[in-house]
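(Fold this chain)
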Amino acid sequence: MDININLGDIYELKKPHPCGVNKWKVTRVGIDCKIQCLGCGHIVMIDRVELKKSIKKVIEKGPSLQ
């Protein structure tokens, strides 16, 4: 699955966060991505390649920057 990761995207990941929610919002994009849990607000830095492997489905796309 080839996904273009953009700022503001909301993804459902394969493994849930310990708070029980598996929906995350992208708050920073680069070589590493910063994602925020939509359940408890916890912020995690994750490698872009690892994030792409972890994505189960796209919930919502962020605003287009074109």
In short: The mean pLDDT is 91. The CA atoms of residues 32 and 47 lie 4 Å apart. The beta strands are 10-13, 23-28, 32-37, 43-47, 55-60. The chain has one helix and five strands.
